[in-house]
Amino acid sequence: MRTFMFLSIVALCSAKSLLQNEFLHFLAEHDVMQQDPPQNTSDIIIQPQTPTPPPTLDDLSFTCPLKCVCQVRVVQCSDAGLKSVPQRIPKSTVMLDLQNNKITEIKETDFKNLPWLYIPANLPKSLVELRIDDNKIKKIQKEAFKGMTFLHVLEISGNPLDTTGIEPDAFDGVMRLIYIRISQAKLTSVPKNLPANLYELYLDHNKISSIELEDFRRYKDLYRLDLSYNQIKDIENGSLAYLPHLRQIHLENNKVRKVPAGIKDLKYLQAVYLHNNDISKIEVDDFCPKESSIKKILYSGISLFGNPVKHWEIQPASFRCVSGAYGVQFGNFRK
Questions:
Q1: N or C: which end of the chain has fewer CB within 10 A?
Q2: Residue 76 placed within a domain
Q3: Exposed, middle or buried: residue 241 (CB in 10 Å: 0-12, 13-18, 19+)?
Q4: What CATH number is attached to the domain comprising 38?
Q5: Does some domain include residue 190?
Q6: pLDDT, tens only, 296-310
Q7: Which residues contact 302 (CB under 8 A, 6 or more apart)?
Q8: What is the dihedral of CA 305, 310, 314, 319, to 10 degrees?
Q9: Is the CB of residue 96 less than 8 Å from the CB of residue 89?
Q10: What is the dihedral of CA 194, 198, 202, 208, to 10 degrees?
Q11: pLDDT at 269
Q12: CA-closest candidate to residue 47, choices 162, 170, 197, 134
């Protein structure tokens, strides 16, 4: 979901009315009429100042949407009784006001051709879900989400965000954030400064090469963890011991060479995805603890297909804590 989705939330739901002096302040601050575009527009952060587009023919000849008032790069459509986002908004629009209308749905294409649309720094504090996928975010600054006490869900996938781009205090004061997805980014390791009360963490499709001992020390409440489609080879002994409530772990499509130590000690773990790795051997105690009473919930699924393991050499007792005969998935390994 692209930037315009949460921009639309801001425009439709903000409690403060956008007065004329606020527009003038914005125009003065950003010098919309005179600024030249920067040479590098890739370093967008979570609280960006949008670069101003160069003058185009669209600035001189455009059709203002019905019931809207248009100035150069500013389109005001507030209090217009609109039931949908206006069509043919000038491409060079920087500021779009859609407050106090009757719009009930934002379509995928509504803001598709508005590359210069301004992203406000002060998002409503009442936001519960925030999705800013597929942008150019490289950095999340200190206290970027300050005051967002109701924020539960954050998706920030498809951005060139590296682990070092998340500042240590970026999530200070965010107490209810339980779901974070940072997929298809440039993470090279597990971020250690995300909110401690996370329930679900998705870091798939990154460049993480190893799991270190301290990576999950902070995230003791996690029950779903997705590390699939990375480059993970090594998982340090003891690194999973900090996840006592884990129910599901995705490690498929990596380069893992053996069943991670500590898997068998996770009492509530139900689903383990290990397919398409480099596991060549399964030991009898890799998944199940020696004392059956330690395991509180039986496995409902373990996927091992796409590994160079010879399943006929595995002892049946290796899966003694799996709930049913179809709980383990094997397949032909093809190099």
A1: C
A2: yes
A3: middle
A4: 3.80.10
A5: no
A6: 999 999 999 999 998
A7: 271, 272, 274, 287, 319, 322, 327, 328, 329
A8: 0
A9: yes
A10: 40
A11: 97
A12: 170
Q: What tokens does 268 get?
A: 């509530």
Spans of the chain, pLDDT less than 50: 1-50, 57-60, 335
Domain enclosing residue 68, as ranges: 1-122
Structural domain count of the chain: 1
Token pair of 106 as six digits: 């934002």
83 within some domain? yes
Residue-wise pLDDT for 6-50, tens only, equals 443 443 443 333 334 443 444 444 443 333 333 443 444 444 444
Write the CB contacts of 308 (distance below 8 Å, at least 6 apart in sequence): 278, 279, 280, 333, 335
Assigned domain for 210 exists: no
CA distance 217 to 110: 43
Say whether pTM exceeds 0.85.
no
Q: How many CB atoms lie within 10 A of CB 284?
A: 14
Structure tokens, 120: 């406000």
- The CA distance from 196 to 138, in Å, is 22
Residue with tokens 């893992």: 256
